Amino acid sequence: QVQLAESGGGSVQAGGSLRLSCAASGYTYSLYCSAWFRQAPGKEREVVAAIDPNGRTLYADSVKGRFSISKDDAKDILYLQMNNLKPEDTAMYYCAWDPGRRLKEREEEFKYWGQGTQVTVSL
Known about the structure:
Elements: E1 3-7, E2 10-13, E3 18-25, E4 32-39, E5 46-51, E6 57-59, E7 67-72, E8 77-82, E9 91-99, E10 112-113, E11 117-122
Parallel strand pairs: 2-11
Antiparallel strand pairs: 1-3, 3-8, 4-5, 4-9, 5-6, 7-8, 9-10, 9-11
């Protein structure tokens, strides 16, 4: 059973930075797509960024140029570097993981999810 554990969330002022981490364990697949989603109060969960086994990435328009997704395959850790944070980035952030080669972005395409880490950005 795959387990995902996020860390790195917190409170920061607008313009600040945070780096989220997601440690994966318990899987046997060699190829997988991983992603970060977020959900703000009263809103649907949305993809923030995703990365496939070849390192190809996608980003939500709202975070392009500010956020960067990366992974350390040796350590089985997914990262999300968030710069120039804005109050509208406030949300619970979740990492997601699914076996396969394809770059995915829809919530229903991901089988495994972490518990989430809260990010709060204030003015």
